[in-house]
Specification:
259 residues, 8-stranded mixed β-sheet, 9 helices, 8 strands
């Protein structure tokens, strides 16, 4: 467990392992840094950092509005705290919006961008319905139900399930609601034109949510190399259900980004 203070004095919690070229991970609402527990094996040769966004786990909410830009600023503050000059930012699901916010605001710090089941804007019916359901359930203070659903859909590992469920339950209902609302509001389509770091898109072959967004990335991110990787036997939950395959892809991307 590691704690630091962001620029406004808010105490934030993060996990880190290993040394070397750093990966900074951005999580979806509720599940927190626990969702990247299986990416710890990357720390054998890399540095793996996962910040709990404001309101998650031991991270305080602070007095600032919850926005993707604030999340990017918190991550920048963490990078300065850790003395990491350049990192690969890696966003899973809605966490892809945080990774894109960081890459857009701090291109000089971004060595590469990896989006796992990612999207620049939620405009498909299925994804919007999923985010609306999260917003609605949070407003009704149904955190135990959200915790059960998110932990069980992601993994059968009992320890990881407990960690994910505990993370969801740690978030105040109004903050969790706000994070789900941001998934419906944030739009980084235009910023893709200015992306200056290599972009990798990773999808489970059975992903019902995100594969439709590939055309946005390929059409708009025209200043950088873009590549896609499909992982067999999984839908959206790649980090937990196909961690070995994902970690191998991430390690290969890191080697190329470091060239």
């Amino acid at each position: 467990m590691f704690l630091f203070r962001s620029f406004d004095g808010t105490r934030l919690h993060y996990d880190k392992k290993g040394n070397g070229q750093p990966f900074y991970f951005f999580h979806p609402p509720g599940v927190g840094a626990a969702i990247f527990r299986e990416q710890g094996s990357l720390a054998e040769k890399r540095k793996v950092v996962a910040l709990n966004a404001r309101g998650h786990g031991m991270s305080e909410l602070g007095d600032q509005p919850i926005t993707m830009e604030q999340w990017a600023a918190d991550t920048y503050a963490l990078a300065k705290h850790e003395k990491d000059d350049r990192m690969i930012v890696c966003g899973y699901s809605q966490g892809s919006l945080g990774a894109l916010a960081f890459a857009n605001r701090y291109p000089e710090r971004t060595a590469g961008v990896v989006l796992i089941g990612g999207f620049p804007f939620a405009d498909t019916w299925l994804l919007k319905q999923g985010l609306r359901t999260g917003t609605w359930a949070s407003a009704l203070h149904w955190k135990p139900l959200i915790a059960l659903a998110l932990s069980r859909v992601h993994t059968k590992d009992k320890t990881t399930r407990r960690m994910i469920a505990a993370s969801v339950k740690s978030v105040q209902a109004n903050a969790l609601k706000r994070w789900f609302e941001l998934g419906q509001e944030a739009d980084y389509r235009e910023s893709l034109d200015n992306l200056s770091a290599p972009l990798m898109l990773i999808y489970g072959k059975r992903d019902p949510y995100a594969k439709a967004y590939q055309s946005d990335f390929y059409c708009r991110a025209n200043q950088v190399p873009v590549q896609s990787v499909y992982i067999d036997g999984v839908g959206h939950q790649v980090p937990t259900k196909r961690s070995n395959e994902l970690n191998a892809v991430l390690a290969q991307f890191a080697r190329k980004a470091g060239d």
